[in-house]
From TrEMBL:
Belongs to the FAD-binding monooxygenase family. Gene3D superfamilies: FAD/NAD(P)-binding domain. PANTHER family: FAD_NAD(P)-BINDING DOMAIN-CONTAINING PROTEIN-RELATED, L-ORNITHINE N(5)-MONOOXYGENASE-RELATED. One of its GO terms (molecular function) is NADP binding. It comes from the Bacteria. This is Probable monooxygenase. Keywords: FAD, Flavoprotein, Monooxygenase, Oxidoreductase. It holds the Pfam family FMO-like. The keyword Endoplasmic reticulum does not apply. InterPro entries: FAD-bind_Monooxygenase_sf (IPR051209), FAD/NAD-bd_sf (IPR036188), Flavin_mOase-like (IPR020946).
Amino acid sequence: MAISADDTPAPAGEQHAHVIVIGAGLSGIAAAVKLRRGGITDFLVLEKADRVGGTWRENTYPGCAVDIPSSIYSFSFHPNPGWSRNFVGQPELLSYIEDTVEKFRIAPALRFGTELLEAAWSGDRRRWVLDTSRGRFVAQHVIFASGLLHEPTTPSLPGLDGFPGDTFHSARWNHDVDLTGKRVAVIGTGCSAIQLVPEIQPQVRELYVFQRTAAWVIPRLDFRVPRPVRRLFRHVPVTQRLFRGVSDGFLKALALVMRRRSSARLLTPVGKGLLRRQVPDPELRAQLTPDFTVGCKRLLLSNTYLPALTRPNARLVPHALAGADGSELIAANGERVEVDVVVFGSGFEMRHPPIAERIRGRDGQLLSETWKSKSPEAYRATTLPALPNAYLLLGPNIVMYNSLLALAEAQLDYVVDAIRTARARGIDALEIRPEPFRSFNDEVQRGLASTVYNTGGCSSVYLDEKGKNFVTWPWSTKRLRNGLARFDIENYATTPAER
């Protein structure tokens, strides 16, 4: 049953809560459960949409599924013995999120149709004042759980506005458009594109895939979980924990291999072997072979993407899209193809996260202005100077080859400890001091200098306009978790509550 908006009127005046969570996706729901388990019950979760789910509510394109094993891509406090596959699809995952809301009784704290317009720290009140589409909210602590994959990006290119056919982003799939028998162009070859291309290829008349740069594709170890195994997981929970542990260990080993260029190269034969098996044509295979080290960009997992490109109605355009002239799309090399529908698989805005344009700190400056001048940074991917009592989930330099949900949960243990510590010690405000903030981020950049993310020979979304890596974590999952295991109040400036 969908957890969706009710018809309650917008609140009059201000609404107050000890903690407010922004966003009701996976990390926002995890925040709500972790807060309650930590004894913090005075909280609200503000969600701009009319339903929970975040990116798994928004992304409904054909073939949409997780690219991390389902056993890992799930809440630690709510293991699901009933996953139908090792890599489940979007509908099943969305249903799981809604089941979590119901099981842990989060619905009363949810405020749907409530979009954050601006969150500003009030030094006089020592509180966050949040202006929303449904009035003003005030909180002592704010957890920003708006997610990494939130704002789709589409290129601004000459002539696209005049394209006469249908155009849409994969994250905003237009289900009213029937692709059957049409000429369709997919722009981009990232995680979403490699899932949707094999799904739509059999139904379209002609399929053109525009590829700016080739990407490494390795097999996806997907399989249907037999019903007897699901029953075993349900009745003997330790077996599911063991399976989760094995999957987690595999990802940790992969992350260890991927950190260094020398070891990441060990995976090159896997990618080249898949290309040899699935792409017989040597010219097409050459166009699909990357010229950078495995891991420099995010690995793509698929068993069906490469075969789809070899079908008679599919054609790879090994160049970026440069523009459009009527119904013709123009590639960077001048090549033209005529199509009826354009699907943008062009990713999300990560360099300039939209949430940063709505957070105003103690100094009156927007976070987006700070990050524009200095590149995105945070202390342990979570806190920032001039933002007292504010916590980012999945902030800068936290991504690695592991479940983002598991990383967010590690952050939430730190956040809940911070809020509990402030309450226990009578502290109104906690703010990371500039010295540990600078020291931590300098150490992260030094650690990244020798990783494949920085030295693998590619231009990726991990790097901002200045060439600085603001996305990935350079070390092990264990080191990240250890750093977030205890709230280190000694590194924070504190403001005692007024008596």
